[in-house]
Specification:
Elements lengths: L3 E6 L8 E5 L9 E6 L2 E10 L13 E2 L8 H13 L4 H8 L9 E6 L9 H10 L6 E2 H8 L5 H9 L3 E6 L8 E7 L6 H7 L4 H12 L3 E3 H6 L5 H9 L3 E7 L20 H14 L7 E5 L5 H15 L3 E5 L7 H11 L3 E4 L5 H12 L5 E4 L11 E7 L16 H12 L2 E6 L4 H8 L4 E5 L12
Parallel strand pairs: 12-17, 12-18, 13-15, 13-16, 14-15, 16-17
Antiparallel strand pairs: 1-2, 1-4, 3-4, 3-5, 6-7, 6-8, 9-10, 9-11
Length: 462
């Protein structure tokens, strides 16, 4: 067996990892790799060194897809705990914890060469006839479902060997990155004589150059063409003269970028809220604080406690935080309250985001450009580098349970993740779950209460 052996977790309903060989330096655990699996290629994650015991043949890794692991050690360990505790395949847990763009697999396409004929076995003729409809390349997975013949790989190999079909494997797509074209000044014409000589007979080029100059040396190509009124030939003329250069600049997708940030309301904590915040501040000083349960009646101001706690974690301690809310409560109003206080430090993770928006939010969190993740249950996997606190609002809500495989309870995962990194996990509810209440009664959780509504309002009679 040449090379080093590694164990790879694949996003399949299989409760084991698979051993592959890798040439050269062994990538760190958590790295995405492309591996052969049966007759396909799949994306998996290296989870550790492989032993190779009892194996007579080990297939090599086809490609290493990233230089830096997409799954940091802390999340890899957490995924391992979830797999053990909830009896879930590790590869499925890893796929759930990451944007879908990072687990896209390769695709096999078939194209008919020439025309379909009656030569070959009945199954081969049926496959050729399907390929002859339309003439465009057909994906193997789609064909297999349409033909309802089971595995069609024997026919594919036979027909490809005969040269009657063309089989092409398209590698996994790179994660979607959005760019726009930017015109940047490369040769500054500070001397007026040089400028006059350069634009003697090109007044529109001169105007375009001066527009770039006034905007700091760069501008979007679309802005110059539409708002500036310059033609593409004018910009091309500046390129040919070596005055400007066109570049593709990445644009991070943010669904809230166009929204006007509301001014935060200046609220002063009540005496009860201040007492809870003081106690939580002391818990943040502990190396491994236990979970805290905030039992607050409706209208008692639990959200203000969350926000003031996050201010301490993010602004004073320079750490990151996660706020979990039920899917039904993840409304623009909820998001705007956090954005009003923390602005662009907030990344929102929910099911309505496009694949690209979710990938961009995930990257900005991992790189520390955003330090607060607000979202439903899957946000518990947000890649916060220095996690200081996790808030679980309405911790009793049933939507924190993932009903499809891999199944998990996001509230409990939040408690375990916080304990593993020494962060504070704060659970809040007006009607705590029985298990959380019991844990508070026996001392596993610290219990705090807000029994009065802000402003002295009375609860409705029951």
């Amino acid at each position: 067996m040449a090379g080093s052996l590694v164990d790879v977790a694949l996003p399949l309903p299989v409760y084991s990892t698979f051993t592959y060989s890798v040439e050269g330096p062994v990538p760190p655990a958590g790295t995405r790799v492309l591996v052969p699996f049966r007759r396909e290629e799949r994306i998996g994650w290296i989870v550790g060194a492989g032993s190779g015991a009892g194996l007579t043949r080990v297939r090599p890794i086809l490609d290493i897809l990233e230089g830096e692991p997409s799954v940091p050690p802390e999340l890899l360990e957490l995924s391992g705990w979830i797999a053990d505790y909830y009896l879930a395949p590790l590869g499925m847990v890893l796929r759930t914890s990451l944007p879908s763009a990072l687990s896209d697999s390769s695709r096999d396409y078939l194209t008919l060469v020439g025309k379909a004929d009656d030569v070959g076995t009945p199954r081969e003729r049926k496959l050729l006839a399907a390929l002859g409809q339309g003439g465009a390349p057909r994906r193997v997975r789609t064909l297999r479902k349409a033909l309802a013949m089971g595995s069609i790989w024997p026919e594919i190999r036979a027909l490809a060997t005969q040269g009657r079909i063309c089989h092409q494997t398209v590698p996994p797509r790179d994660p979607p990155v959005r760019t726009h074209r930017v015109v940047r000044v490369m040769n500054w014409l500070s001397d007026l004589n040089d400028r006059e000589n350069m634009f003697r007979r090109a007044s529109r080029q001169r105007e375009a150059y001066e527009a770039l100059e006034s905007s700091g040396g760069s501008a979007e190509l679309a802005h110059l063409l539409h708002q500036g009124g310059f033609s593409r030939s004018v910009i091309r003329g500046l390129e040919d003269k070596g005055v400007v250069v066109l570049e593709d600049v990445e644009v991070l997708r943010d669904p809230f970028r166009e929204e006007i940030r509301a001014e935060p309301k200046k609220l002063v904590p009540t005496r009860d809220q201040a007492a809870v915040l003081a106690a939580l501040g002391e818990m943040l000083q502990e190396p491994n604080p236990p979970p805290a349960l905030l039992h607050g009646v409706t209208g008692s101001g639990k959200t203000l406690v969350y926000i003031e706690l996050l201010k301490e974690v993010v602004h004073n301690r320079n750490q990151g935080a996660i706020v979990l809310v039920p899917e039904i409560a993840l409304t623009p109003q909820t998001v705007s309250r956090f954005r009003a206080h923390f602005g662009d430090d907030v990344a929102v993770l929910h099911s309505a985001l496009s694949e690209g928006e979710r990938f961009d939010a995930w990257r900005q969190l991992r790189e520390g450009k955003k330090r607060i993740a607000v979202g439903a249950r899957s946000a518990v996997f947000a890649p916060i580098p220095r996690l200081g606190a996790i808030v679980v609002d309405e911790e009793h809500d049933g939507s924190y349970k993932q009903s499809e495989g891999p199944r998990y309870q996001a509230r409990d995962v939040a408690i375990v993740r916080a304990a593993r990194v020494g962060a504070l996990c704060l659970l809040g509810s007006a009607t705590p779950s029985l298990e959380s209440w019991q844990n508070a009664q026996i001392g596993k959780f610290r219990l705090f209460s807000l029994l009065n509504r802000v402003g002295g309002g009375a609860l409705p009679p029951v």
